[in-house]
Amino acid sequence: MALNYDTLRRWQIADVERSYDARDTILYALGLGIGGDPCDPAQLQFLHEDGLRALPSMAVVLAYPPLWYWRPGTTVDPTRVVHAEQGFVMHRPLPAAGRLLGRTAVTGVVDKGAAVGALMRTECRVHDQADGGLVCTVTSASMARADGGFGGGDADDGGPGRDWRPPEGEPERTVRIPTLPQAALVYRLSGDANPLHADPRHARAAGFDRPILHGRCTFGIAAWALVQAYCPMAPERLTAMSARFARPVFPGEALLTRMWRQGGRIAFETLVEGRGTPALARGTAVIAQDDPPPADRPAAGGQT
Amino acid sequence: MLDYDRLIRWREPELAQRYTERDTMLYGLGVGFGQDPTDERELRFVYERGLQAVPSMASVLASPWGWLYRAGAGVTASMAMHGDQGLVVHRPLPPRGTVVSALRVTDVQDKGRDKGAVVHFERQLHEQASGDLLCTVTATMFCRADGGFSEARDAAAGAAAGGASHAQVVPDDAPPVRATAVSAPADAPPADEPDPDEPPARETLVRAPDAVCEFDTLPQAALMFRLHGDTNPIHADPALAARAGFPRPVLHGLCSYGMAARAILASFCDYDASRLRSLGLRFSAPVFPGDRLRFSLWRAGGEVRFAATVPARRATVLTRGYAAIGPAVGPDASAAGRAAASAIGSARDAAAGGRAGETADAPWEEFPWR
Fold first, then answer.
1. CATH architecture for the domain at A8-294
2. pTM for the full model?
C-alpha cells in the first residue's frame, strides 16, 4: 500500500499519560553514563533523591507516543522507518518526578523522493497533570524510507534546526563522554525496548555487527555535554536543543561533543571518537541567561 | 546498651514486593552482567529473551532496609557492619512476580565488651501467587560497639533471682572486622564439610584454585545498586562517607554478593541460574565502586568454596565463600515467569519478519515490563 498523504497528515495519535518517579529519573541518568565520577556533585544532582534534578533531555522519552506509525492504517511501511531528528523546547523546568500528559500531532509529511523517503514530522506538547501547565514541546522527525515519491506533501520547513548554520573555526568547548559497553542495556530500561539495541541476532539481521546505541541516548549524552560545558549546576538552563541523527553509535565508544557559540545560541555536533564520523549533526541549543565567560570578553581597558 | 530481650524476639511485619523484568535486568546489570553486551550467555540475565533472575536477587526483594536501627534495641548504628550473607534456594526465583517475606531475628551473640555483638536474622521468601517457598535469606550484622551486653544482664539476673542469662558470651570465631592488610585466608580452599563458620584448615591452602575470575565494578555501581531499595547514604554521599572514615562512598555488600553469584554461575553453572542452590560469604573489607575484584574458587563435587580480593588495594574483601550447585531445574518450576518473558520475545521475533499491513502490533512495546 502506498503512502496516503491525507490519511497520514490527519492521523490521530492517542494521548500518552506517563507517571514517573525519582527512580525513573535516576535510571535515565545512569543510562546516559552519568555517575562515572560518583563523587562529582554535578553528576550526583541527577542521581540522588535529595535535590534530584531531571536532565531536560529526559523530556523526549516521557509522554512521547511510542511507535505510533506501527498502528494499522497509517499507510507507511513501519519496518523501514528510521528516526531522523529530535528536538525539544522547555517552557519550564522538567520536574524530577510527576505525571505528564503528552498530546502529539503530525505536523508535516515531506516527500524527499522515492530514493530517500517520506519525512514525517511530529510535535508533542507535554503538560504537567498537576496543574495543566505546558512543560515542553518535543519535536521529532522520522524517515519512512519505503514511502518516498508519493507526490505532493508539505514543503520542508527544516524543523527546529532550520536556523542552523555551519560553525566557523575551532569549537569553543569540546566535551568527551565515554559510553559503557552495556550502555544500551541500561538505557533501554528507560522504556525503548527495541531489540535492535540489545539482541545481537536482531542487530545482525538489521545489518549491524552488534547492537547499536539508541539515538535518543546519544541525544541525551549530547545534552549532558552541553550542560557540563555551559551550566553544570543549573541544568534547567538548557532550554532548547535539536539535532539530526547521522550515524549509529556502538555501546562502548566515546563521544566528542564540539560546541560553538553563535550569538544567543550554541551550535554543536557529536562525533564518535576514533571513527571521526558524526553521530549527531546540525545540532543547536539554547542556554538561558548565558553570558560569555570572562575569558571570551575583550580585555578590560586600563587593567594593570 | 543492646537490649537482648527486645532484639531476640524481634519480628518485622510481612512485606510484599512486586517486581518485573525491568527490576530483574537492572539487578543483573548492577552485579556486572552484560559487560560484554554480545555474550549471549550473559544476556540471559539482562535481556528479556529467556530472562533468568540472578538467584542472589532474593537478598534485595521485600527487604525491610534499616530495620535494625528502627528496632529500638540500642544498636549503635554508626558502628554496625554487614557481616555475613547467605541464601538457600528452594525453587528458582522467577524473572517477575510478587514475593512476600517477614524478617525474624534468629540469634544474638555477645562476642565480648571489646569485640561486639552479632545479630543473626533470616527471611523466608514466598511467591505470593502460589504460596511456594522460593528461598531462605540469612544474614548477620556485626555490631562493633554493642558487645558485653550479657554482663549487665547476668548482673541484673543474678541480683533479681540468681538465675543465668540466656545470652552467653560466645567465643570469638574471627568476627568480621574490617581488614586493614592482606590476610592469608583469601585463598580458602574447599573443605569436606561446607560449614561456613568453620575456617578452612591451614594445610589445605596449597591447592591452586579451580577457577579464577576477575570482574570490574562500575564507578557508578553503588548509585545503580541503590535503586533496589538500600538508600543508606554511605553508598552515595561523598561527605557522609568521609565522616564515616572512608575515602569515598562504599559499594553495597549485597552488590559484591551478587558478583559472587556471577562468578559461580560463570565458572561452574554454564550460566544456568537454576543450578545454584546455596550461596554464602562473609564481608571482610569494604569494596569501592570501580574496584576490580578477583574471585578464586575451588570446587569439590557440588560444593564450591571461594574468596575475593581487590588486588590493586591488596585487600581481601570476601571470605568464607561457599556455594552448592546441582543439576538444572526444569523450566516448569517457574513456568509462569518464563512464559511471560518469552511471550515478549516471540511476539517480537514474529513481528520482525512481518511486512507492513500484515501485523497490527509493533515489534516491541514501550515499557513492556510495567
1. Roll (3.10)
2. 0.88
